[in-house]
Amino acid sequence: MLVLLAFIIIFHITSAALLFVATIDNAWWVGEEFFADIWRVCINNTNCTEINDTFMGYSMLQAVQATMILSTILCCVAFLIFVLQLFRLKQGERFVLTSIIQLMSCLCVMIAAAIYTDRREDLHKDNPDFYRLISDGTYGYSFILAWVAFAFTFVSGLMYLILRKRK
């Protein structure tokens, strides 16, 4: 039973780490001479421009930023609630509250990655001054980590839903 508990805790911490890296790091769209994320656009690793309200489609990026931050916060809150429920739940009860919060985190990261997937091309076309070299790029590892975090938080949420507290 301790092995299962350790696996669940490590899986949850891994999910949170993936969310932190995907949210903070600047590699949602990359190329040979540039990288862009939900916070800034950098060309030649030195010329970085913060994304602000002068960008066309800034509200879309704000939605991605907000849902990624919310997802990370919800994942951390779910872990704290899981630890509390380990000591407070009666034997045989399920970790439903932890599961609901973790599945909400899953939903938030899915929304953020889906918005970015759908609107990325329009964002690049509407801001040619900032994205002039970026048209030939590819999705970066932070974007991929966001989708992997979606899968991890989904599986984790289902595990908490199925899991019962044992002695």
Automatic annotation (TrEMBL):
It is found in: Apical cell membrane; Cytoplasm, Perinuclear region; Golgi apparatus membrane; Membrane raft. One of its GO terms (cellular component) is cytoplasmic vesicle. It holds the Pfam family PMP22_Claudin. Keywords: Cell membrane, Cytoplasm, Golgi apparatus, Membrane, Nucleus, Signal, Transmembrane, Transmembrane helix. The chain crosses the membrane at residues 63-83, 95-116, 139-163. Residues 1-16 form the signal peptide. One of its GO terms (molecular function) is integrin binding. Gene3D superfamilies: 1.20.140.150. It comes from the Eukaryota. It is a multi-pass membrane protein. GO terms for biological process: actin filament organization; actin-mediated cell contraction; apoptotic process; bleb assembly; blood vessel endothelial cell migration; cell-matrix adhesion; early endosome to late endosome transport; embryo implantation. Functions as a key regulator of cell membrane composition by regulating proteins surface expression. Also, plays a role in regulation of processes including cell migration, cell proliferation, cell contraction and cell adhesion. Belongs to the PMP-22/EMP/MP20 family. Interacts with PTK2; regulates PTK2 activation and localization. Interacts with ITGB3; regulates the levels of the heterodimer ITGA5-ITGB3 integrin surface expression. Interacts with P2RX7 (via C-terminus). Interacts with ITGB1; the interaction may be direct or indirect and ITGB1 has a heterodimer form. This is Epithelial membrane protein 2. It comes from Equus asinus (Donkey).
